Amino acid sequence: MIELEGLTKRFGTKVAVDHLSFQVRPGVVTGFLGPNGAGKSTTMRMMLDLDNPTSGRVRIDGKHYRDLEEPLKYIGALLEAKAMHGGRSAYNNLLCLAQSNRIPERRVAEVLDTVGLTSVARKKSKGFSLGMAQRLGIASALLGDPEILMFDEPVNGLDPEGIHWIRNLMKALAAEGRTIFVSSHLMSEMALTADHLIVIGQGRLLADTSMADFIQRNSRSFVRLRSPQQERLRDLLHEHGYQAVESGNGTLEIDGATTESLGELAARHQLVLHELSAQRASLEEAFMQMTAGAVEYHAHGTDVHPGTDSGPRWGDQAPRWGTTSQGK
Amino acid sequence: MASVPAVLQSEWTKIRTVSSTSWTLASALLVTVAMSAALCALMKATFDELSPAERATFDPTFISFSGMILGQLAMVVFGVLVVGTEYSSGMIRTSLAAVPQRATFLFSKIAVAAALALVVGLATSFLSFFLGQALLGEHRTTLGADNVLRAVIGGGLYMGLIALFSMGVAAMLRSSMLSLGILVPFFFLISQILSAVPKAKEVAKYFPDQAGAKIMQVVPEALNTEKAPYGPWGGLGIMLIWVAAALVGGYLVIKKRDA
Amino acid sequence: MIEAVGLTKRYGAKTAVYNLSFQVRPGAVTGFLGPNGSGKSTTMRMILGLDQPTSGHVTIGGHPFRQLPNAPRQVGALLDAKAVHGGRSARNHLLSLAQLAGIPARRVDEVLGVVGLQDVAKRRSKGFSLGMGQRLGIAAALLGDPQVLLFDEPVNGLDPEGILWVRNLMKKLASEGRTVFVSSHLMSEMALTADHLIVIGRGQLLADMSVKDFISANSADFARVRTPQTAPEQREKLTGVLTEAGGQVLSEPDGAMRVTGLALPRISDLAHDADVRLWELSPHQASLEEAYMRMTQAAVDYRSTEDQLAGLQQPVPPGYAPPQPVIPEVPQQGWYAPPPPGQNPYAGAPAAAPVAPQAAPAVPPAAAPAPAPAAAPDLTKRENDEDAR
What we know:
The complex is a heterotrimer of chains A (about 325), B (about 260) and C (about 400).
Chain A: E1 2-11, E2 14-24, E3 29-33, H1 40-47, E4 55-60, E5 75-78, H2 90-100, H3 106-114, H4 130-142, E6 148-152, H5 160-175, E7 179-183, H6 187-193, E8 196-201, E9 204-210, H7 211-218, E10 221-226, H8 230-239, E11 244-246, E12 251-255, H9 259-268, E13 275-280, H10 283-291
Parallel strand pairs in A: 3-7, 3-8, 5-6, 6-7
Antiparallel strand pairs in A: 1-2, 1-4, 8-9, 10-12, 10-13, 11-12
Helix pairs in contact in A: 2-3, 3-4, 7-10
Chain B: H1 4-16, H2 19-46, H3 52-56, H4 60-63, H5 68-89, H6 91-98, H7 102-136, H8 148-173, H9 176-194, H10 200-204, H11 208-213, H12 232-256
Helix pairs in contact in B: 1-7, 2-5, 2-7, 5-6, 5-7, 5-8, 5-9, 7-8, 8-9, 8-12
Chain C: E1 2-11, E2 14-24, E3 29-33, H1 40-47, E4 55-60, H2 71-74, E5 75-78, H3 90-101, H4 106-115, H5 130-142, E6 148-152, H6 160-175, E7 179-183, H7 187-193, E8 196-201, E9 204-210, H8 211-218, E10 222-226, H9 232-244, E11 248-251, E12 257-260, H10 264-273, E13 280-284, H11 288-296, H12 372-378, H13 382-388
Parallel strand pairs in C: 3-7, 3-8, 5-6, 6-7
Antiparallel strand pairs in C: 1-2, 1-4, 8-9, 10-12, 10-13, 11-12
């Protein structure tokens, strides 16, 4: 459990983090989102006591970070992949960390094996690709088998197998009851990984809510119906006060309804439905909607406007977070 | 709190697992010994050409440490790299996340590195002395002579303190490049040049290297040196004040600044 | 149009790319996929004339890169975002590139505007974040208004707004009739961006087909079906009926059913006949990631393993619950599931002819099995050298 209370950080006159209060709870993967310059990294650094807050505080399991005895056993963090001495081997980099927190040496070989770096354990980390450095960073976070894990952009530089692996790793760690806090710019990746979201913009808390809630609240959701008896279906919907919009290929879209109620309605009237599915926007779209206005570098020249026509398609090919989701 | 022996062990692993440790310390030793030996051999060959005054103040101990002018630079590099690479590699954040007690972290690192520098410094000093005396032939002195042992051990202390001072400066500046850019010209050029300029040399006498080097002299006004308003131990004391100031500065920076 | 014919690159005894033949056509975004160390970067470098192929050749618009008249006006590439002199300002960096290629200076300000860097144009690029460096690299690629664009991991370091922008930029460039070739590890991003895919593994072509075909060829679509929670017997009844009709039914974590092997109307009819009410009946297409994982499972370099935790059995922190194995109710997507027979080129022989229809003529089946067993083990550590350069 990580608790932030009124956390504030000023650099001169610029307020990077502004009275941020939230909790990161165990048992779930909590995603930490925000545009560039929103204060995510500063917040994460203050959580690890690397930066001193101007005011407010962070508690790790009720304690100040500095009061943790052997902190790697409580909290493991991947902040940046290259935060290791390049002239030292992967094994020795981890060994220094293990020794400082009295973690048994055989654990070093274990985590190297976990992240798949055993074959290059004795190589200097200088020659590592970004993906390998990332795996080394993940190994250092896992070293103390901590109850709390923090990952900043964990999939950076990983290949698809690695991305798939780290996603399942985070989920498995959360399922064991650990606290997982992960920041990322990849909305599609977050949608597959996180259960809960904390969104900040310009240093302030914008949302602290479950993934499903966040998407529902920040975008349109509707039910899609397809039926061989479309005429009857449309009349029936009209009769019951539903607004049905035709969207081509014989599908109807109904706002403000649940699949349950429409399913019951169809059953009562002996209507055959060939599709009855809840459609939700992607996390990306919801995020764009919410953070519009809190973005530092706006691109020009292409007609891109978050949340309007350029958003993800609703069609079948567009992976929605719902497609692979487990009910939330 | 973090266990100090554990942190010391960790810092020892850090130091022994990077190649810069061995090449900086090896060059500190080899450069000092080789250059001192060369100067001793040269001095023996040209002793007869010295003026009587110069012969009277000839200090065979001090001349056998003359390579330290160059060798100390390798010590500076060692000290700077021990602290500076934490910053240049980004390792500092990983290290401080593991050991958030910054004083424990910094002083464990410095203690391990200083102990190592002292051992190498003493080895360098004794080797330089014995090799130098062997080459000086009839002009040689012995370890048993007055103040000679003090000077030889002092030479080791001087090397260790130079490394310590560099660590403090690197911790203050949080950058290897910047620290080397300041320390190397300072010790190799500025300090040497100022000590030859009439007015400036009064100030230069109190520089850490000028003051500390007095410990290695057996004859107070040895060849090419100025009389100082302090004795050998006084000089080392002045150097210690510099070192302490650099370490306190380094500690305050690491304590206050964001990593 | 980029065209590779029999492209092969050896580094000493290592074969990084073997007999690669493909075409990247204009008017579409072509994704370039492959595990780390599969030869993607080497191929990109050969396209740009940075590496010489050992044999075979690759042309852009019919010419090898080095013989292109005024190459910067025809080809733009983003290879490494940090390949910029850090001491120079963003604007001067682009200006020097423009002058080399005889591009007017006002084009520099144009592209800076396009990538959204006009406010920091005078700042030294040393202080740029990865995302800003990436935008600068994209600006450089766009400078000559080229017909052919290559992007290596373009969204690296960008924030969500930037990712969306790059995605739309690439689609727009393709819709203008340009050739856009993008390599990426982010499958979900690729699924949204690319129209066509070229997949390589261990330096050989695995697939060259549309995204849609790729997904349906390498994974199974399914239907999600939910019955009223209040009536569990309905669910059992439906499961029986669907199984009888030849469908396969699995449970999803929220209690819904995952049905494969039956079309949606058929499920609907079966439910109707069995008098089962449906609360959900939605079509799902497998993800590109899943399809990709199945295809490339044999060609991965660093495979992660289970965390054993053997070294850390002692201090159990307060509130620590012993880890319990997580038993998925639904088979995990990805390489755990066996690929459909005949789809995975590594399934049978160590190396077989690629499945892609376009590639078949270029790689005669007789030629493929011979070098592969020797080449494959050598390739496992390529990533390192490749990235170090």
